[in-house]
Amino acid sequence: MTLLQLQFLLVPLLTSRMGAAQYVMQDAALMNYIDRRLQSVEKRLEKCNQDILDYVEEFRDFSKMVLSRLAGQNSCKAEVKSEVENLLIRIERAQRDIDYFGSARDAKACIELHEDLVRQQQFEEAEQKKKLKLMLNASCDHMLAGIKSLKIVKKMGDKDGSWMKDPGKKHTKIYVLNGSVNNVIWEFANIMMFTESSNALRARRVTLPFPWEGTGHVVYQGFLFYHRHGSLNEIIKFNIQRRNTTDRMLLPGAGRVPAYQLSPSTKIDLAIDEQGLWAIHAEPESGGNLVITKINHGTMAVEHTWDTSCNSKDAEAAFMVCTTLYVVYNIPSGGTSRVRCVYDVLDAVSAYELPDLHFPKRQGGHSTIHYNPKEKQLFAWGNGSQIIYKLHMQQK
Do residues 346 and 329 make contact, with C-beta atoms less than 8 angstroms apart? Predict the structure, then answer.
């Protein structure tokens, strides 16, 4: 009886204890589930926060890119505007030339030669010469009387090339353009830096937007003028300091044949004298005789053209001194270079007045010869050597 009562007492007790344990296990499972859910939420929040940081960084990069492109567009807009303005100027210039040639052609078609007309033409030619003298500053009255001496400054680069100073500026920089086709200018601070440097590490490298052709380039008033490679007769005006193309022009009649038989890579030879920028080239229609053109270096417009009596056969180079063209001849194997033909656009110099002008103490040809009116010297390039010739002048 007592045992039976004890069983009745133990059963509720055990049942209550088992129920409590079950509740405890359920609570633990619930807490474990809640903990896992919280950890999952925390991970998602952490990932969301990281995504927001990544989005912010991408937005910053995108903003920088947009601002950079906007700045580039403003720069391109200014360049396009400048190019359009230059294009309009060239179109106007071309239209004037077309109108002029059209009127000249129409006038020639209607000409009836008679004495009065001949006198009128002679009068107009005389007036034209007066205008040319005014345009070319007739006070330029000296002529080349002799080539006194030479100095080989350095030997570097290819067989063909060109080197020069800027006669229109007050600096002493040396510019070297190596080869007959290239797009890199080397700028040295002065001639001492050029002669002492064993390589181009001490020079400023300037890369052109278009390569040059030949060796007939010049530097004047801070600009490089050169014949663009791959074009028939396009002359580029390049600002060396700003490193951009300022203007360009087409030289009528040029580019079909070499200017000099012994320098076949040069179709257009540009030159500088006391009067500014000139172009020298040959035309098949003239039987190979050289043609010289006065160019306004500021507007890149043709001012006047002259057909000379100097032939390109056996010629290796030419240069201008005080409105007079001096053509240098040689033999194909490279003998003594001599000036054998001159042409003064103002008819103030006669070939009979000139002494025998030869280049002293040197055998071999030149790929280019350029006159520097500021220093009254010739800067020449011969078989990879950079040469200076000192000149003797006399009154015309």
Answer: no
Q: Do 223 and 230 form a contact (C-beta atoms < 8 A)?
A: no
Question: Taking Cα atoms as reference points, which of 343, 347, 288 lies closest to residue 318?
Answer: 343
Could you tell me which residues come within 8 angstroms of residue 360 by beta carbon, excluding any fewer than 6 positions away? 147, 148, 149, 150
Distance separating alpha carbons of residues 311 and 282, to the nearest angstrom: 8
- Confirm whether 249 is domain-assigned: yes
Cβ atoms of 149 and 380 closer than 8 Å: no
Quick one: 180 exposed, middle or buried, by C-beta within 10 A (0-12, 13-18, 19+)?
Answer: buried
Query: For 267-306, how does the pLDDT look when each residue is reduced to its tens digit (9 = 90+)?
Result: 999 999 999 999 999 999 888 999 999 999 999 999 999 9
**Do the domain assignments include residue 158?**
yes
What is the spatial distance between Cα 339 and Cα 326, in angstroms, rounded to a whole number?
6
CATH code of the domain in which 245 resides: 2.120.10
- Facing residues of 164 across strands? 175
Q: Is residue 304 part of a domain?
A: yes
Helix (H) or strand (E) holding 207: strand 204-213
- Rounded CA-CA distance 201/386 in Å is 19
- Asked if residue 27 is part of any domain, the answer here is no
Q: What is the mean pLDDT of residues 347-366?
A: 75
pTM for the model:
0.68
Q: Using CA atoms, how far apart are residues 124 and 113, in angstroms rounded to an integer?
A: 15
Position 139, amino acid = S
Judging by DSSP bridges, how do beta strands 357-358 and 368-372 pair with one another?
A: unpaired
Burial class (CB in 10 A: 0-12, 13-18, 19+), 287: exposed
Tokens of 127: 């007036």
Per-residue tokens: 150? 């030479």
Total tally of structural domains belonging to the chain: 1
DSSP result, 283-308: -GGGTTEEEEEEEETTTTEEEEEEEE
